[in-house]
Design a protein that fits this description.
Elements (H helix, E strand, L loop, with lengths): L1 H6 L7 H17 L7 H26 L7
Helix pairs in contact: 2-3
Length: 71
């Protein structure tokens, strides 16, 4: 979020949607204790969080560049 606000200010419109999409992933990640039995599951959660954040970061960059999508 800080990078989007600092360098891609036109993409700030994407940030609320990113937060709405990432909150359930973060809740599930923080609810999972990191002991030796749950580390494999936590790695999958971290990967899905990383993919979601990367997708919304790319959307913010596209939104800030002035690309106009029309159907």
């Amino acid at each position: 979020m800080v990078l989007v606000g600092a360098f891609f200010t036109g993409g700030l419109i994407v940030v609320p949607f990113m937060l709405l999409a990432v909150i359930p992933l973060l809740k599930a990640l923080f609810a999972n204790p990191l002991n030796s039995h749950s580390r494999i599951g936590a790695m999958a959660q971290i990967c899905s969080l990383n993919i979601a954040l990367g997708a919304f970061y790319a959307a913010a960059i596209l939104a800030s560049s002035g690309v106009c999508f029309t159907l």
